[in-house]
Automatic annotation (TrEMBL):
Protein name per Swiss-Prot or TrEMBL: BON domain-containing protein
Keyword flag Signal: yes
Domain BON: 66-134
InterPro entries the record matches: BON_dom, Lipoprotein_DolP, Transpt-assoc_nodulatn_dom_bac
The keyword Oxidoreductase is annotated on this UniProt entry: no
Pfam families (UniProt xref): BON
Keywords: Signal
Residues in the signal sequence: 1-26
Native species: Candidatus Thiodictyon syntrophicum
């Protein structure tokens, strides 16, 4: 049972129980009908709130997966480049913004790594905190 169904059950079942309890206490059929209508309306509202919350979480998860894919693509590009050493360059991505850090062998390595990262799809910007070994 996925999260949506569990939340639906956790909202729907108590609302149904309240509706039944309201029916028992209702003096007339008209009162019972009103109670059921109110419970259905409240349940619908709660279900919509749960759906919206799940949608937001799904969007955040999607963003995280996009960032992980961007990082993996950049690492693969660095690995395939003969001028760069993948173990020297750390790549992090947050909301499409890439940060490169570490110590590389030359200024050309900094330029090359930055250019490789910038051309990967979905990269919004690249910040380089790379430094040349021995130069501080």
């Amino acid at each position: 049972m996925n999260l949506f169904h569990r939340r639906l059950a956790s909202v729907g079942f108590p609302a149904l129980m309240l509706a039944v309890a309201g029916l028992v206490q209702a003096a007339t059929a008209e009162d019972a009908g009103k109670s059921i209508d109110q419970m259905i309306e409240k349940t619908g509202t709660k279900m919509q709130e749960a759906k919206e919350a799940l949608g937001e979480k799904a969007a955040k998860t999607g963003d995280y997966l996009d960032d992980a894919a961007i990082t993996a693509k950049i690492k693969a590009e660095i690995l395939g480049d003969p001028l760069l050493k993948v173990l020297q360059i750390h790549v992090t991505t947050t909301d499409g913004v890439v940060r490169l850090s570490g110590e590389v062998d030359s200024p050309q390595s900094i330029e090359r790594a930055t250019a490789l990262a910038a051309r990967v799809n979905q990269v919004k910007s690249v910040t380089s905190e790379l430094v040349v070994k021995g130069v501080k």
